[in-house]
């Protein structure tokens, strides 16, 4: 991922996903733009447990930032390990053998878009 300095104008109205969730971006209320993903462009190399940003992915992220019209400096770059559940679906509900313990996790790289609504539904079901 990367983050830019705040932009003076609104360039992104809402969090956005494309390419089946492999690419995503949003603008914070304070104007910074966050861009992440693009791992689908290098599926053979974007595996393992190394949590350092890679130059090829960062160049895609920055190119998209510029395509959106942002001209601010990139202030932060980061990467992380992405885990997946066996089914590709989140794990939401009671934890077996632990009374009154509930789980809301396992978004397979899509937490930003799904976690809030999943947690809201879990709380409403309780």
Q: What does this protein look like?
A:
- The protein is an alpha+beta fold and 126 residues long.
- Helices cover 22% and strands 22% of the residues.
- The longest helix is centred in the C-terminal third of the chain and has 15 residues, at 111-125.
- The termini are far apart.
Relevant terms:
2 domains; 2 helices; globular; 22% strand; two-stranded antiparallel ribbon; five-stranded antiparallel β-sheet; single chain; alpha+beta; 126 residues
Task: Summarize the entry for a quick read.
By secondary structure, the protein is an alpha+beta fold. It is built from 2 helices and 7 strands.
Lay out the secondary structure:
Elements: E1 2-4, E2 16-18, E3 23-27, E4 33-37, H1 55-67, E5 74-77, E6 91-94, E7 102-105, H2 111-125
Antiparallel strand pairs: 1-4, 1-5, 2-3, 3-4, 6-7
Q: Could you say which overall geometry the principal axes of the C-alpha atoms support?
A: globular
Low-confidence stretches: none
Radius of gyration computed on alpha carbons: 17 Å
| Number of continuous helical runs | 2
Q: Quick check: average pLDDT? A: 90
Query: How large is the share of residues in beta strands?
Result: 15-25%
Tally of distinct domains = 2
Q: Major beta sheet, specifics?
A: 5 strands, antiparallel
Give the class from helix and strand content and strand pairing. alpha+beta
Number of strands: 7
User: How do the strands line up in the largest sheet?
Assistant: 2-3-4-1-5
Cα end-to-end separation: 35 Å
Element order: H for helix, E for strand: EEEEHEEEH
Helix content: 10-25%
